[in-house]
Amino acid sequence: MKTLKHFSPEMEIYSIDEAFLNLTIVPDEEILQFGKKIRETILQWIGIPASIGIATTKTLSKIANYIAKKEKSGVVSLINKKNIDHILKKIEIKDVWGVGRQLSKFYINNGIFNANQLKNVPNNWIKKNSNVLSSKTAMELRGASCIALEIVRSKRKSCCVSRSFGKKVESLQELKESITNHCLNAAEKIRFESLLTKSITIFIRTSPFQKMEMHYSNSKTIDFPIATDNSIEIVKSAVFGLKSIFKKGYKYQKSGIVLSGLCESKSYKNNLFSSTKDKRTKNLMRSIDYTNFRYGRSTLSLAVAISNKKWKTKRQHFSKIDTTNFDYLPIIKIS
């Protein structure tokens, strides 16, 4: 995403590997060459091939990108193409951005099988039988931009951390270790985004697929008296909630926590219950985060989270991440 920022200041990060760029500053006759330059730069700097679709709307750019994935050049532009009906006819309705599985079935039942047919459907009929978003999709297929770039990313509303165990867990102690680790990871994430949490949900469950064993799943939600990002407070509440839902005699397969009611820490800077202890706690959390960032995760941690972690998720088949981790870089021996 940092690489893409070099080409346009207005960018919407759509997913971990996908983004929309505003290229209106680039002349139409140079747009295809500009797209090729972006692709070449990504390949040179990161080593990952990319597909680039360019059009006047987000929906059409997704279609161009869909076509680009099958092209050798990896870049397709629909700019300056007067008639794209023959292109839209080849795009099945299920492959149109914004058309989900159920909506796709509805369109097919009503004789709409491709993007071109959806483009020609009257807006009144779409609004009556579906929703405004579907109407916007049809209008975007006609070349009218209706879905704006979301340049400012909205803050998350919740934060979930959960893992399946590498082997079944039966003891409360091992569940406490896993829940504590989940809490520490989640607390670190919300502090990084300057957020506070108002409540925490703890959940545990056995495998639902083993018919020979009794199935059990349960959860517990606890509200904090004051919104917090304090790892210690979050862990205390989580362990308390875990003890209330834990039952002996079950082989647990998964555990997790959800921090919900997230809000910006700015809104809770000065409140009636603030004290000097809160300032010391914030400084402690800041020091822990800095140390773990510099020397590696879990360099500083709570004692209950430190163990052999026999329950840890199996990772022997993890793919190597050569592009983002120095530990996985190929080693060349010269003799």
Question: Quick gist of this model?
Answer:
With 335 residues, the chain is an alpha+beta fold. The protein has eleven helices and nine strands. The longest helix has 21 residues, at 172-192.
- What is the total tally of β strands? 9
Distance between the termini: 39 Å
User: Domains counted in the coordinates: how many?
Assistant: 2
**Structural class label:** alpha+beta
CATH homologous superfamily identity of the largest domain: DNA polymerase, Y-family, little finger domain
CATH classification, class level of the largest domain: Alpha Beta
Q: Helicity, in percent?
A: 25-40%
Tell me the series of helices and strands, N- to C-terminal. Answer: HEEHEHEHHHHHEHEEHEEH
**Radius of gyration over all CA atoms, rounded:** 25 Å
**Architecture of the largest domain, according to CATH?**
2-Layer Sandwich
| Biggest sheet architecture | 5 strands, antiparallel
What is the global morphology?
A: globular
Low-pLDDT sequence parts: none
Per DSSP, what share of the residues sits in E-state strands of 2 or more residues? 15-25%
The third-level CATH topology of the largest domain is Dna Ligase, domain 1
Estimate the mean pLDDT confidence.
87
Q: What is the number of helices? A: 11
